[in-house]
Amino acid sequence: MTSPIRVVIAEDSAILRDGLSQLLVDRGFAVTNAVSEPEALKDSVEHDCPDVAIIDIRMPPTFTDEGLRAAIALRRTHPDLGILLFSQYIETRYAAELLAEGAAGIGYLLKDRVADVSEFVDALTRVASGGTALDPEVVTQLLGASRRLGTISVLSAREKDVLSLMAEGRSNVAIANELVISEGTVEKHVASIFTKFDLPASQSDHRRVLAVLRFLDS
Amino acid sequence: MPSRESHEIRAPIRVRPSKMMIVVSDELEARFKAIAHQVFRTPFTKRTWSELCYLVLGSALAGVCLAFVIITMAAGAVLAITFFGLAIVGLSLRGARGIGGFQRRLARGLIEEQIDEPDPFLPRPGFLGWLQSVLKDRPAWRAAAYLAVKVPLAVVGVLTAISIWFDAFTCLITPLGGGYQPKEFGLARGLFPPGYLSIGSPGWIHGLAIFLTGVLLFFAAPWAVRLIVLADRQLMRGLLGPDVVAVRTRSLEHARAQTVDASAAVLRRIERDLHDGTQAQLVTLAMRLGLAKEKLADPAHLDLAQVSQLVNDAHRGAKEAIVELRDLARGIHPPALDVGLEGALATLAARSTMPTELSFSVEERPTPAIETIAYFCLAELLANVAQHAHASWATISCTQHGRWLRLVVRDDGIGGAQLSKLGSSSSGLVGLTDRVSAVDGHLEIVSPPHGPTVVTVDLPLHA
After folding, report:
1. B358 and B438 share a domain?
2. How much is the average pLDDT of B95-124?
3. Do B288 and A20 touch (CB under 8 A)?
4. C-beta separation of B395 from B434 below 8 A
5. Is A191 buried (19+), middle (13-18) or exposed (0-12) by CB count in 10 A?
6. For residue B335, how many other CB atoms are within 10 A of its CB?
7. Which residues are within 8 A (CB) of B215 and not within 5 positions of it... i.e. 6 or more apart?
8. What residues of chain A lie within 8 A of the CB of B272, using their CB?
9. Does the pTM of the predicted model rise above 0.80?
């Protein structure tokens, strides 16, 4: 049996912090620490070397974007640490800032997503193992605000579904399960999207996310 | 014994009137001396000469400035059919504003008259914006009006001042030089025609009269100048300072800014309360239910006790969220106010932690905004009494005085309350003072050390 994924939680709401710890332990994670502010998070990461950190964006002292600042700082000092930002609302600028230094081991989810426990656990596992998990809301906002609407409109409806899931950081297998199609069909759609966007095909999931996001954001 | 008594009684009666007379004459003498001293000293003070200097210099400059304004205005008016004309009028008004500033500096420098600056000129962007702003620039129009009134005053003033001073010196010098007749300019020549006092041959009496007139004029001249300058001072205070409308506007703008800030702060607080409280509760609730749902979907490994615990926790969380939401909603608008101010204040008094008595006599119902402010004032004041005053009782009185609502909160606590230290939170009493002053109300705290503390809030009935 593989050792459990080690998680540190930084969330200032005590109710949510406790609930989240319970859920993760129930799902076989090891919660190394649950803290309520950025400094304690930093110490905890130094001390326990967790695999992944779940970080609330709004934390003391100013309750604005302390979590994001802490995440970016941790990214520099601990490049191997997976970071899952956790927030009540999605701010595309935060996603862009976080993804500026690569998409490997990065997640950004609405807090509501914990209601679908399995999907949440899935996203956390992906981030912990160096993948990407972006909230569908982030992808929707990016697609909506993209100046490449002309290019996006040449995609078929199915290809758009695949694009959204790909931008969330899902693997081909996950996309195939979600859309109830074969893996081969997914591969075909992905190849078609990359051709239409004139992007070099990329094997690794998180490189693929970044390529798509950069394309949408540019 | 009787004789001594009578002596004791009589003595003060006799002494007092004479003492009083002495005192009165002393006072009179002192006052007379002071006046005489001032009259004799005045021609030799700096103020006298700087006022004369201001009168002559300021008047000459005012004349030049008025000419500039009139000529440019006239040119603008002639060209007003074209766009160019309005621009010239605009430039003329900018000039008038500048002149106003120059006049203020001159007055400050020479006669120590401190006139506050009017509001700065803040044109709206773009040429059209500038033109509209400058044509509606009240300080500029008022400066132009000042020049228009000042110049006639200055003509009369300068002529009077020069003639009096000239006469004073002529009358003083003429007899000394052996002449009997003031020469040239001024009133003195009219006063003293040849042979007025000594028919045929003007003699030494005539000369002496002229000299004494000179002395009189010499001491009177500063006061004439002072009177003219006083008129100018009044004119400047009226037209070159910030006008009443502008001062009122500024205080209203200040109040509006505070109100906007305060309501933004309230919204931020509500958002934070929702974010930290209710939203977190609901997310946790959804998470527990989600976990329970997934467990129930897998009957093979079902642990009923575990699921039951999850549902219990979720149930408790839902109830807590309901309470939090209710408290939050009450903080936004107290439902008690829908019943009326008396009922709402009575609810607050009843909820207070110490015995609290309310007396209420308001015939006319205030507007909702005033009721809300009165309600939150009382809530904050009572919270403050409960937290800091160590009081055993409090009384509240809410009364109507004409168009005003007066709310008075007294307690028998330790006193020493200060505005800066009051308030249960940052949005506490200081915030309330802002809200009270935003509707032109007043908040007053009387709180000596060892108490009692009396806080009086006056609010207009209709905001």
Report:
1. yes
2. 90
3. no
4. no
5. exposed
6. 11
7. B172
8. 63
9. no
Residue A115 touches partner B, C-beta closer than 8 Å: yes
Q: Is residue B15 one of the residues assigned to a domain?
A: no
The answer to whether residue B10 sits within a structural domain is no
List the domain range (segments joined by +) for residue B385: 337-460
> Is B123 found in the same domain as B58?
yes
Do B149 and B261 share a structural domain?
no
What pLDDT digit, counting tens, does each position of A33-49 carry? Answer: 999 999 999 999 999 99
Residue B312 lies inside a defined structural domain of this protein: yes
* A89 CA: distance to closest CA in chain B (Å): 10
Is the domain of B129 the same as that of B65? yes
Chain B residues touching residue A63 (CB < 8 angstroms): 272
Half-sphere exposure of A80 (CA within 13 A, CB side): 6
- pLDDT of amino acid B178: 63
| CA B271, chain centre distance (Å) | 36
Residue range A85-131, pLDDT digits in tens: 989 888 888 888 888 877 889 999 999 999 999 999 999 999 999 98
Same domain for B428 and B373 = yes
**Cβ–Cβ pairs < 8 A, chains A and B:** 45
- Judgement on whether residues B342 and B328 belong to the same structural domain of the protein: no
Joined tokens for residue A60? 């003391």
- Among A153-167, B96-110, B182-196, B208-222, the range of highest mean pLDDT: B96-110
Task: Quote the ipTM score.
Answer: 0.85
Q: Is there a domain that residue B19 lies in? A: no
